[in-house]
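Data deposition worksheet. Section B asks for the primary sequence of the deposited chain exactly as it was used as input, without tags or linkers unless they were present during the calculation. Section C holds the resulting structure in C-alpha coordinate form. Section D is free text for depositor observations; keep each observation to a single sentence. Incomplete worksheets are returned to the depositor.
Section A, Depositor: J.P.
Section B:
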Amino acid sequence: MRNSFINAIMEASTRRDDIFVISGDAGLGVFDTFKAEHPDRFLNLGVAEQNMASFAAGLAMTGYKVVLYNIIPFLLYRCYEQVRNDICYQNLPIILAGIGSGLTYSPQGMTHYSVEDLGIARTLPNLSVLSPIDPVEARLAAGFALSSDTPVYVRLAKRGEPEIHTRSDFDISIPQVLSEGSGTALLFHGSIGEEVLRAALLLKEQGIVPRVISVPLVQPLNFAVLGELLGGISNLVTVEEHYHSCGLGSTLREFCTQGGRSFSLTTLGIAPRYIHEVHDNRGMRKLFGIDAEQIAAAVQLASECGSADGRRP
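Section C:
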Protein backbone atom coordinates (compact mmCIF):
# COMPACT_ATOMS: atom_id res chain seq x y z
CA MET A 1 0.00 0.00 0.00
CA ARG A 2 2.74 2.43 0.94
CA ASN A 3 4.40 2.20 -2.48
CA SER A 4 1.09 2.55 -4.35
CA PHE A 5 0.31 5.73 -2.45
CA ILE A 6 3.76 7.24 -2.92
CA ASN A 7 3.88 6.27 -6.60
CA ALA A 8 0.59 8.12 -7.14
CA ILE A 9 2.09 11.20 -5.48
CA MET A 10 5.23 10.91 -7.63
CA GLU A 11 3.16 10.61 -10.82
CA ALA A 12 1.21 13.74 -9.89
CA SER A 13 4.46 15.62 -9.28
CA THR A 14 5.33 15.29 -12.98
CA ARG A 15 2.20 17.32 -13.79
CA ARG A 16 2.24 19.68 -10.83
CA ASP A 17 5.06 21.91 -9.69
CA ASP A 18 3.54 22.69 -6.28
CA ILE A 19 4.10 19.28 -4.64
CA PHE A 20 6.76 19.46 -1.94
CA VAL A 21 7.82 16.36 0.04
CA ILE A 22 9.23 16.53 3.56
CA SER A 23 10.60 13.44 5.28
CA GLY A 24 11.43 13.06 8.95
CA ASP A 25 14.45 10.84 8.30
CA ALA A 26 12.19 8.02 7.07
CA GLY A 27 11.43 6.35 3.76
CA LEU A 28 15.07 6.22 2.76
CA GLY A 29 15.18 5.09 -0.86
CA VAL A 30 11.46 5.66 -1.46
CA PHE A 31 12.00 9.18 -2.78
CA ASP A 32 15.28 8.70 -4.66
CA THR A 33 13.71 9.32 -8.07
CA PHE A 34 11.76 12.32 -6.80
CA LYS A 35 14.88 13.83 -5.23
CA ALA A 36 16.81 13.39 -8.47
CA GLU A 37 14.09 14.92 -10.63
CA HIS A 38 12.92 17.64 -8.22
CA PRO A 39 15.82 18.44 -5.86
CA ASP A 40 14.27 21.81 -5.02
CA ARG A 41 11.05 20.17 -3.77
CA PHE A 42 12.34 17.65 -1.25
CA LEU A 43 13.76 18.03 2.24
CA ASN A 44 14.77 15.49 4.86
CA LEU A 45 14.48 17.53 8.04
CA GLY A 46 15.85 14.70 10.17
CA VAL A 47 14.83 13.68 13.66
CA ALA A 48 13.08 16.98 14.42
CA GLU A 49 9.43 16.14 13.98
CA GLN A 50 7.90 19.20 15.63
CA ASN A 51 9.98 21.45 13.38
CA MET A 52 8.96 19.31 10.39
CA ALA A 53 5.25 19.96 10.98
CA SER A 54 5.68 23.69 11.51
CA PHE A 55 7.99 23.97 8.50
CA ALA A 56 5.34 22.25 6.38
CA ALA A 57 2.73 24.73 7.58
CA GLY A 58 4.93 27.62 6.47
CA LEU A 59 5.45 26.10 3.03
CA ALA A 60 1.71 25.47 2.66
CA MET A 61 1.02 29.12 3.40
CA THR A 62 3.18 30.07 0.42
CA GLY A 63 1.16 27.84 -1.92
CA TYR A 64 2.92 24.47 -1.83
CA LYS A 65 1.02 21.18 -1.58
CA VAL A 66 3.15 19.62 1.15
CA VAL A 67 3.40 15.87 1.76
CA LEU A 68 4.69 15.10 5.26
CA TYR A 69 6.07 11.56 5.33
CA ASN A 70 7.00 9.66 8.46
CA ILE A 71 6.25 6.68 10.67
CA ILE A 72 2.93 7.41 12.37
CA PRO A 73 4.23 7.81 15.96
CA PHE A 74 6.68 10.44 14.69
CA LEU A 75 4.13 12.09 12.41
CA LEU A 76 1.12 12.43 14.70
CA TYR A 77 2.11 11.60 18.27
CA ARG A 78 5.39 13.38 18.86
CA CYS A 79 4.28 16.59 17.16
CA TYR A 80 0.59 16.59 18.06
CA GLU A 81 0.71 20.23 19.18
CA GLN A 82 2.20 21.40 15.88
CA VAL A 83 -0.27 19.33 13.82
CA ARG A 84 -3.09 20.74 15.94
CA ASN A 85 -2.07 24.42 16.00
CA ASP A 86 -0.02 24.94 12.85
CA ILE A 87 -1.77 22.61 10.39
CA CYS A 88 -5.34 21.80 11.46
CA TYR A 89 -6.19 25.06 13.22
CA GLN A 90 -4.95 26.95 10.14
CA ASN A 91 -6.88 24.44 7.96
CA LEU A 92 -3.90 24.04 5.64
CA PRO A 93 -4.07 21.52 2.76
CA ILE A 94 -1.17 19.37 3.96
CA ILE A 95 -1.01 15.61 3.40
CA LEU A 96 0.08 13.68 6.48
CA ALA A 97 1.37 10.40 5.06
CA GLY A 98 1.66 8.06 8.03
CA ILE A 99 3.44 4.72 7.64
CA GLY A 100 2.98 1.69 9.89
CA SER A 101 -0.73 1.64 10.64
CA GLY A 102 -1.88 -0.70 13.38
CA LEU A 103 0.66 -3.42 14.12
CA THR A 104 2.56 -3.15 10.84
CA TYR A 105 5.86 -2.81 12.66
CA SER A 106 5.46 -5.95 14.75
CA PRO A 107 7.49 -7.05 16.60
CA GLN A 108 9.34 -3.73 17.10
CA GLY A 109 7.23 -2.85 20.10
CA MET A 110 4.77 -0.31 21.46
CA THR A 111 6.83 2.73 20.46
CA HIS A 112 6.30 1.87 16.79
CA TYR A 113 2.68 0.67 16.89
CA SER A 114 -0.17 2.90 15.75
CA VAL A 115 -3.18 1.56 17.57
CA GLU A 116 -4.61 4.79 18.97
CA ASP A 117 -4.03 7.22 16.11
CA LEU A 118 -7.68 7.37 15.06
CA GLY A 119 -8.62 8.38 18.58
CA ILE A 120 -6.05 11.17 18.43
CA ALA A 121 -7.13 12.23 14.95
CA ARG A 122 -10.76 12.48 16.07
CA THR A 123 -9.76 15.35 18.37
CA LEU A 124 -8.57 17.42 15.38
CA PRO A 125 -11.34 19.34 13.59
CA ASN A 126 -10.73 19.96 9.86
CA LEU A 127 -8.68 16.74 9.53
CA SER A 128 -9.92 14.08 7.10
CA VAL A 129 -8.62 10.56 7.79
CA LEU A 130 -8.24 7.76 5.27
CA SER A 131 -7.34 4.17 6.16
CA PRO A 132 -6.96 2.21 2.88
CA ILE A 133 -7.47 -1.55 2.81
CA ASP A 134 -5.39 -2.29 -0.30
CA PRO A 135 -3.24 -0.70 -3.05
CA VAL A 136 -6.35 0.35 -4.99
CA GLU A 137 -7.69 2.39 -2.08
CA ALA A 138 -4.18 3.72 -1.42
CA ARG A 139 -3.96 5.16 -4.94
CA LEU A 140 -7.42 6.69 -4.63
CA ALA A 141 -6.49 8.08 -1.21
CA ALA A 142 -3.54 9.86 -2.84
CA GLY A 143 -5.88 11.43 -5.40
CA PHE A 144 -8.31 12.50 -2.68
CA ALA A 145 -5.53 14.03 -0.59
CA LEU A 146 -3.94 15.85 -3.54
CA SER A 147 -7.25 17.47 -4.48
CA SER A 148 -8.26 18.41 -0.92
CA ASP A 149 -8.06 22.02 0.23
CA THR A 150 -8.00 20.93 3.88
CA PRO A 151 -5.61 18.68 5.89
CA VAL A 152 -5.69 14.95 5.14
CA TYR A 153 -4.12 12.15 7.18
CA VAL A 154 -3.57 8.83 5.37
CA ARG A 155 -2.57 5.83 7.49
CA LEU A 156 -0.75 3.16 5.51
CA ALA A 157 0.62 -0.32 6.04
CA LYS A 158 3.64 -1.56 4.08
CA ARG A 159 3.65 -5.35 4.14
CA GLY A 160 2.77 -6.09 0.53
CA GLU A 161 -0.99 -6.10 1.09
CA PRO A 162 -2.96 -7.81 -1.73
CA GLU A 163 -5.43 -6.01 -3.97
CA ILE A 164 -8.98 -6.59 -2.72
CA HIS A 165 -10.99 -4.32 -5.01
CA THR A 166 -11.71 -5.51 -8.55
CA ARG A 167 -12.40 -1.98 -9.81
CA SER A 168 -10.69 1.33 -9.21
CA ASP A 169 -13.20 3.98 -10.30
CA PHE A 170 -15.19 4.36 -7.09
CA ASP A 171 -15.62 7.23 -4.65
CA ILE A 172 -13.05 6.80 -1.87
CA SER A 173 -14.98 9.23 0.36
CA ILE A 174 -17.88 6.84 0.98
CA PRO A 175 -18.12 3.26 2.33
CA GLN A 176 -17.86 0.53 -0.29
CA VAL A 177 -19.79 -2.75 -0.41
CA LEU A 178 -17.30 -5.46 -1.40
CA SER A 179 -19.77 -8.31 -1.33
CA GLU A 180 -23.50 -8.51 -0.74
CA GLY A 181 -25.06 -10.36 2.17
CA SER A 182 -27.95 -10.21 4.57
CA GLY A 183 -28.64 -9.99 8.28
CA THR A 184 -25.12 -9.05 9.38
CA ALA A 185 -22.72 -6.46 7.99
CA LEU A 186 -18.95 -6.79 8.46
CA LEU A 187 -17.31 -3.35 8.39
CA PHE A 188 -13.58 -2.68 8.45
CA HIS A 189 -10.72 -0.41 7.41
CA GLY A 190 -6.98 -0.73 6.96
CA SER A 191 -4.75 -3.71 6.29
CA ILE A 192 -6.91 -6.07 8.39
CA GLY A 193 -8.85 -6.46 5.14
CA GLU A 194 -6.99 -9.62 4.19
CA GLU A 195 -8.19 -11.29 7.42
CA VAL A 196 -11.74 -10.04 6.87
CA LEU A 197 -11.89 -11.53 3.37
CA ARG A 198 -10.55 -14.85 4.64
CA ALA A 199 -13.19 -14.77 7.38
CA ALA A 200 -15.91 -14.19 4.79
CA LEU A 201 -14.80 -17.32 2.94
CA LEU A 202 -14.87 -19.36 6.15
CA LEU A 203 -18.37 -18.08 6.90
CA LYS A 204 -19.59 -18.92 3.42
CA GLU A 205 -18.64 -22.55 4.05
CA GLN A 206 -21.00 -22.43 7.05
CA GLY A 207 -23.83 -20.90 5.05
CA ILE A 208 -23.39 -17.43 6.59
CA VAL A 209 -23.03 -14.57 4.10
CA PRO A 210 -22.51 -11.17 5.74
CA ARG A 211 -22.49 -7.93 3.77
CA VAL A 212 -18.82 -6.91 3.64
CA ILE A 213 -18.18 -3.15 3.69
CA SER A 214 -14.91 -1.24 3.49
CA VAL A 215 -14.84 2.17 5.22
CA PRO A 216 -11.86 4.00 3.69
CA LEU A 217 -12.73 7.52 4.87
CA VAL A 218 -13.13 7.03 8.61
CA GLN A 219 -13.25 10.77 9.37
CA PRO A 220 -15.66 12.26 8.58
CA LEU A 221 -17.67 9.08 8.14
CA ASN A 222 -20.59 9.56 5.76
CA PHE A 223 -23.41 8.34 7.99
CA ALA A 224 -26.08 9.07 5.36
CA VAL A 225 -24.51 6.78 2.77
CA LEU A 226 -23.67 4.17 5.39
CA GLY A 227 -27.29 4.09 6.51
CA GLU A 228 -28.39 3.40 2.94
CA LEU A 229 -25.84 0.59 2.56
CA LEU A 230 -27.12 -1.07 5.73
CA GLY A 231 -30.67 -1.54 4.48
CA GLY A 232 -32.03 -4.88 5.69
CA ILE A 233 -29.15 -5.32 8.15
CA SER A 234 -29.73 -5.87 11.87
CA ASN A 235 -26.24 -6.83 13.13
CA LEU A 236 -23.00 -4.88 12.71
CA VAL A 237 -19.51 -6.29 13.33
CA THR A 238 -16.56 -3.90 13.05
CA VAL A 239 -12.99 -5.12 12.67
CA GLU A 240 -9.86 -2.99 12.97
CA GLU A 241 -6.19 -3.30 13.81
CA HIS A 242 -6.61 -0.47 16.31
CA TYR A 243 -7.95 0.04 19.83
CA HIS A 244 -11.63 -0.84 19.60
CA SER A 245 -12.37 1.84 22.21
CA CYS A 246 -11.55 4.83 19.98
CA GLY A 247 -11.63 3.76 16.33
CA LEU A 248 -14.25 2.74 13.81
CA GLY A 249 -16.05 0.65 16.41
CA SER A 250 -16.62 3.61 18.70
CA THR A 251 -17.70 5.77 15.76
CA LEU A 252 -20.25 3.13 14.77
CA ARG A 253 -21.46 3.00 18.37
CA GLU A 254 -22.30 6.69 18.07
CA PHE A 255 -23.98 5.98 14.72
CA CYS A 256 -26.12 3.26 16.30
CA THR A 257 -27.36 5.60 19.02
CA GLN A 258 -28.42 8.33 16.60
CA GLY A 259 -31.93 8.49 15.22
CA GLY A 260 -33.21 5.50 17.17
CA ARG A 261 -31.32 2.94 15.11
CA SER A 262 -31.71 -0.62 16.38
CA PHE A 263 -28.52 -2.31 15.18
CA SER A 264 -26.79 -4.88 17.32
CA LEU A 265 -23.08 -3.98 17.40
CA THR A 266 -19.96 -6.08 17.99
CA THR A 267 -16.60 -4.28 17.94
CA LEU A 268 -13.46 -6.32 17.27
CA GLY A 269 -10.07 -4.74 17.74
CA ILE A 270 -7.18 -4.37 20.14
CA ALA A 271 -7.80 -4.08 23.86
CA PRO A 272 -6.88 -0.57 25.06
CA ARG A 273 -3.67 -1.43 26.90
CA TYR A 274 0.05 -1.25 26.31
CA ILE A 275 1.29 -4.19 24.27
CA HIS A 276 4.16 -6.10 25.88
CA GLU A 277 3.81 -9.36 23.93
CA VAL A 278 6.29 -10.10 21.16
CA HIS A 279 4.88 -11.67 17.99
CA ASP A 280 4.93 -11.00 14.28
CA ASN A 281 1.94 -9.26 12.72
CA ARG A 282 -0.04 -12.47 12.22
CA GLY A 283 0.66 -13.59 15.78
CA MET A 284 -0.53 -10.23 17.12
CA ARG A 285 -3.78 -10.51 15.20
CA LYS A 286 -4.38 -13.94 16.65
CA LEU A 287 -3.58 -12.65 20.14
CA PHE A 288 -6.15 -9.86 19.89
CA GLY A 289 -8.89 -11.92 18.26
CA ILE A 290 -8.77 -10.28 14.85
CA ASP A 291 -7.45 -13.11 12.71
CA ALA A 292 -9.76 -14.70 10.14
CA GLU A 293 -10.90 -17.59 12.31
CA GLN A 294 -11.87 -15.43 15.28
CA ILE A 295 -13.53 -12.81 13.08
CA ALA A 296 -15.65 -15.57 11.53
CA ALA A 297 -16.57 -16.90 14.97
CA ALA A 298 -17.62 -13.42 16.13
CA VAL A 299 -19.78 -12.88 13.05
CA GLN A 300 -21.41 -16.26 13.53
CA LEU A 301 -22.19 -15.43 17.17
CA ALA A 302 -23.54 -11.99 16.26
CA SER A 303 -25.75 -13.49 13.58
CA GLU A 304 -27.14 -16.14 15.93
CA CYS A 305 -27.75 -13.74 18.81
CA GLY A 306 -29.26 -11.06 16.60
CA SER A 307 -31.66 -13.43 14.90
CA ALA A 308 -32.60 -15.11 18.17
CA ASP A 309 -33.50 -12.28 20.50
CA GLY A 310 -31.76 -9.08 19.41
CA ARG A 311 -29.22 -9.13 22.25
CA ARG A 312 -26.01 -7.14 21.90
CA PRO A 313 -23.19 -9.70 21.62
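Section D:
The chain has two domains: 2-156, 176-309.
The domain at 2-156 is CATH 3.40.50.970 (Rossmann fold).
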